[in-house]
Amino acid sequence: MIIKANNPALTSWIDVEKNSDFPIQNLPFGIYSDSINQHRVCSAIGNYVIDLYELADRGYFKTLTLNKELFNRPYLNDLIALGKSATRALRERLSDLLESTNQELQGDKKTFDAIFKPQSSVQLMLPVKVGDYTDFYSSIDHATNIGTMIRDPKNALMPNWKYIPVGYHGRASSIMVSGSNFHRPKGQMKPADAEVPTFGPCKLLDFELETGYIIGKSSSPGQSISTEQADDYIFGMVLFNDWSARDIQTWEYVPLGPFLSKNFASTVSPWVVTLDALEPFRTEGYVQEPKVFPYLEYKGNKNVDIKLEVAIQPENGEETIVCRSNYKYMYWTMEQQLAHHTVNGCNVNVGDLMGSGTISGPDVSEYGSMMELSWKGTKPIKLKDGSERKFINDNDTVILRGYCKNNEVRIGFGECKAKLLPAL
Ligand code: MN
């Protein structure tokens, strides 16, 4: 299938800087508010947010037969529920309107300020109403590192790991959009050398470098989505910081898994980059040995080459990049995760968020959490201001960034950031 909007030769009449996350080949979807409008569906190009309601209201989408009120909603759910053919046609139409030789919108100078707003002048909101959130554990380097640290280097991966895309059900209520700061969680923890647990602010607060994908089509109870059908159910991807309290986790996770160590906050980026826009950056997956069950087999290149980085910025200080990883290090693909999630008949809904799990690469500079970077706190990381971190300090801001780049096009996700405030 050829996606016209992905054509690397396209240029826009809107100025786009060379290293922008938002060239005409991206056109992600989000929700913005400003002093004039509350909750409008938007896209992005260069440094601008594009108000899609204003475009619809002026008849620019009339060939698409979309109800303009779909763009005047607090979340993207109703729009993406129309399905891939509708959202693909919308992205194609937007691409046409922004393309250099097209005069329709370019010639309409009076409407520019109503439609195009500097990104810096608006507030980007949580893009989807997340009904259910599931987090996987699909990076082989991450799972190996954690298994090595907390169990046994010789048997770092649990026996199930190469058979099952391991995951758990997370909590949707505390998923926040980038820029929402939160307080250090409190809870029970038991240091290894202590007899009994203590209670107080968590001491080992960590980030998890993840991406997420947003479900764009609901399935019915009893139905299983195959790896082949999966892409039709995945609307797009976001950056995702799945904050974790490691000390609370170590004490509570037996025998049912993570609970309060994970459910206090997760930060999501405001832009959903469509799976369509990511197609040119698909790349080969891991050779999976032992062979997976037939329901987990897939065809073609299903990993995605997304360069990822994490920066820590101390209060009033300069940021330091502490990790550079890549989504292509995922052992289990999104399609396999979704096939596994629904193989038992579990239904998914539009707006559900699936987290990748921490994405680490093989090199020490590619580890996607402080737990790994500081190797359980034994190797502090030096920041540019001379201070050291084993985990995240109060008033540190953690920033995730991600982008795809080949010889022709660079498309990005923007930022996913939040500041850790002291415990209440
Ligand atoms: Mn996680």
CATH class category of the largest domain: Alpha Beta
**CA radius of gyration:** 22 Å
- Helix and strand content put the structural class at alpha+beta
Sheet having the most strands: 8 strands, mixed
Shape summary: globular
Note the beta-strand portion.
Answer: 25-35%
- Which residue ranges are poorly predicted, with pLDDT under 50 across at least 5 consecutive positions? none
Could you describe the 3D structure shown?
It is a single chain. It is built from 10 helices and 26 strands. The longest helix has 15 residues, at 84-98. The strands form 7 sheets. Strands 6, 7, 8, 13, 14, 16, 17 and 22 form an 8-stranded mixed β-sheet that branches. Strands 4-3-2-1-5 form a 5-stranded antiparallel β-sheet. The protein is α+β, with helices and mostly antiparallel strands and 424 residues long. The chain binds manganese (II) ion.
Give the gist of this structure:
The chain is α+β, with helices and mostly antiparallel strands and about 425 residues long. It is about 15% helix and about 25% strand.
Write the layout of secondary structure elements.
Elements: E1 30-33, E2 40-45, E3 48-51, H1 52-57, H2 77-80, H3 84-98, H4 112-115, E4 116-118, E5 123-124, E6 133-136, H5 140-150, E7 167-169, E8 175-177, E9 182-183, E10 186-189, E11 198-201, E12 205-206, E13 209-215, H6 230-233, E14 234-241, E15 244-245, H7 246-252, E16 266-268, E17 273-274, H8 275-278, E18 282-283, E19 303-304, E20 307-313, E21 320-326, H9 334-342, E22 353-355, H10 370-373, E23 381-382, E24 388-389, E25 397-405, E26 410-421
Parallel strand pairs: 6-22, 8-16, 9-26
Antiparallel strand pairs: 1-2, 1-5, 2-3, 3-4, 6-7, 10-11, 12-15, 13-14, 13-22, 14-16, 14-17, 18-19, 20-21, 20-25, 23-24, 25-26
Manganese (II) ion (MN) is lined by residues 135, 208, 210, 242, 355, 357-358.
